[in-house]
Specification:
Length: 490
């Protein structure tokens, strides 16, 4: 009996740790979810933690069943999921299917099974690593473990038609072989630290106590929003003391107005000049006569403060403006940034004074027009934009003496920049490669096209000196690049 109680307590701990890890997404500014629940009262078997989308977000609500096992004596297969414990009641797959059948009436849903047990080979070959969904081959092949092979058997056990079962498996996510309790505690600590929260044994214990209270309440009190989550964190004194981080902050609102936890030292509202839907942004006259003077004034006020060299920067801006902010708060002038960066669905705080990683940029260089006087640079880290580049050259014949494409070794992609150290390394190398190409071709200026994370553009701007005048271009809604402003880098 004692061992069973210990196992139950471990299972509850694992479930609540995972639930808390998911609920912390509500604190992200770009979170597509409006609210969440721990043990949703109307979600059936997929109730351990649920996340409900904002209208128009374009993603599915998430309903999660968390299963903890004390050892690894077995692995999951679909037939194992169909087994009825003790020969009575319904199988886990049947329960999840019944929940899905009910929940899908409310809109797009995903039903998740999260467990520390691994996956059996016949199912594993059909489980997609990047998102825990079943692959298209699962539905088309007839090998053991495929939909065609097991549909009749699984349908009979779940009391489902073939068409219903196909829809259910399309919305099923199997996050199997997930981490241990100790590893999950570490993940939670890292996530809390990134969000400016206290972390460690005592803060986690306070959180888990609160989650147990949420389980016991009913009705609207169970609903967790960003606002109620922040109130919970304040009530339990879980926000970390403001030690070691920036003492001053700069918020610049471009595409949209946002709020973060602490009031800013300096705040600039440029939203009247930007339109995210149409990719509308101000021309160089507005930048030169309105926005740049405001930015310089904010910079001077921060520079006048003894603690103003390390700046916590927040804001949603076009990449060109992020580069310009970095340029005017240059590293040479003694400024450093801590900035938010969304990477692989997680929000991190990257510092521009982080040590450079070992990552390298690859420079693809070619001559263009012998009559050209300008160097064209494409800084592409997150995606391949060579078609855009080729079209841009066609639209500007005879302008460019040479073309320089800068991208990570191994190629650009969503996972090409994984840390502040990578961003710093790429910024430093980009400056040097631009300098060398400029000297080699004896050009009078540089035109810069950006396809990179915002923090990378910010950090590059801080180091963009001694490369002559740089005309910065921005990508428009019709996937073209147009000049926004010129930086006189000397």
């Amino acid at each position: 009996m004692g061992e069973q109680s210990a196992s139950r307590l471990e299972g509850d701990r694992y479930q609540h740790l995972y639930g808390w890890y998911e609920l912390l997404h509500l604190l992200d500014e770009d979170c597509p979810f409006e609210c969440g629940y721990i043990e949703h009262p109307d979600a059936g078997a997929a109730d351990d933690v649920t996340l409900h989308v904002r209208e128009g977000s374009g993603v599915a609500s998430r309903y999660v069943q968390v299963k903890w096992h004390v050892d690894h004596r077995s692995q999951y297969s679909l037939d194992l999921l169909c087994e009825v414990p003790g020969g009575k009641g319904r199988s886990l797959l049947h329960k999840l299917f019944a929940s899905w059948r009910k929940l899908r009436e409310r809109g797009p849903v995903e039903v998740w099974l999260v467990s520390n047990w691994g996956v059996e080979e016949r199912l594993g070959r059909y489980l997609r690593g990047r998102d825990h969904a079943l692959t298209p081959e699962f539905f088309t092949e007839s090998r053991p473990g495929s939909f065609n092979e097991g549909c009749t058997r699984w349908g009979a056990r779940c009391e489902a038609t073939s068409e219903e079962l196909r829809g259910f498996f399309g919305d099923l996510r199997l996050r199997l072989g997930y981490v241990s309790i100790r590893d999950l505690e570490t993940q939670v600590d890292v996530r809390m630290d990134q969000l400016g929260l206290r972390q460690g044994v005592n803060p986690r214990a306070s959180v888990l106590d609160g989650l147990r209270e949420w389980v016991e309440v009913s009705g609207e009190a169970k609903r967790v929003t960003r606002e109620s989550l922040r109130a919970f964190l304040r009530a339990r004194e879980l926000f970390a003391p403001h030690d070691g981080g920036p003492a001053v902050s700069l918020w610049i609102h471009g595409w949209a107005r946002r709020k973060w936890e602490r009031a800013p030292t300096e705040e600039l509202d440029w939203t009247p000049y930007f339109d995210r839907e149409t990719r509308g942004f101000p021309d160089e006259t507005v930048w030169r006569e309105k926005l740049l003077p405001e930015l310089r004034a904010a910079k001077q006020r921060l520079a006048d403060r003894p603690e103003g060299e390390l700046v916590d920067f927040r804001g949603k801006l076009p990449l060109s403006l992020a580069l310009a902010v970095g340029f005017h708060f240059s590293e040479a002038a003694g400024f450093h940034f801590r900035a938010e960066q969304l990477t692989r669905g997680e929000t991190f705080l990257w510092r521009s004074d982080e040590g450079a990683s070992e990552r390298r940029l690859s420079a693809v260089e070619r001559e263009a027009s012998p009559e050209g006087k300008v160097l064209l640079v494409m800084f592409q880290l997150t995606n391949v934009a060579r078609m855009d580049l080729e079209r841009f050259e066609v639209e500007h014949p005879g302008v460019y003496r040479a073309v320089l494409i800068l991208e990570p070794e191994g190629g650009p992609g969503d996972g090409a920049v994984t840390s502040a150290g990578d961003a710093v390394a790429f910024a430093v190398q980009a400056r040097e490669l631009i300098r060398r190409a400029r000297n080699r071709y004896r050009v009078t200026g540089t035109h810069l096209l950006l396809y990179a994370p915002s923090a990378c553009c910010l950090f590059l701007g801080q180091r963009l000196n001694a490369v002559g005048p740089v005309v910065v271009h921005e990508r428009t809604a019709d996937e073209r690049y147009v000049p926004v402003f010129t930086l006189q880098t000397g």
